[in-house]
Amino acid sequence: MDVQTGSFDPTDFAWKGLTLTPEACSHIRKLASQQPRFLGVRLGIKQTGCAGFGYVLDTVKEPNPDDLLFETDGAKLWVPLSAMPFIDGTEVDYVHEGLNEIFKFNNPKAQHECGCGESFGV
């Protein structure tokens, strides 16, 4: 019997985390200044769309016990632990596209996106 053994790097199993661009930080802080009891935003995922998963953003007035906090320059982003395997390493940006302003997600785990850009697959 031919058994191949290998090694693994424990850092491959450590969360890289999520990052916020300066534009995303600015927008989250702006939202916080306009809403009472607003602490930040929660980025989760749900099964949807033609590619498999969609991003879900909610305001946070009280974090959930299983949320992980990523804070940059006073802007707080919570992520449910269950979403981390799908979005770990994601950069959250806030961009202007024509007349629209939206959060954009640069997710290194996304293998493909649907044509409309509303969902992704891993």
TrEMBL record:
Keywords: Iron. Residues 18-118 form the Core domain. It holds the Pfam family Fe-S_biosyn. One of its GO terms (biological process) is iron-sulfur cluster assembly. Gene3D superfamilies: HesB-like domain. Transmembrane segments: none annotated. One of its GO terms (molecular function) is 2 iron, 2 sulfur cluster binding. One of its GO terms (cellular component) is cytosol. Belongs to the HesB/IscA family. PANTHER family: IRON-SULFUR CLUSTER ASSEMBLY PROTEIN, PROTEIN SUFA. This is SufA family iron-sulfur cluster assembly iron binding protein. It comes from Buttiauxella agrestis ATCC 33320.
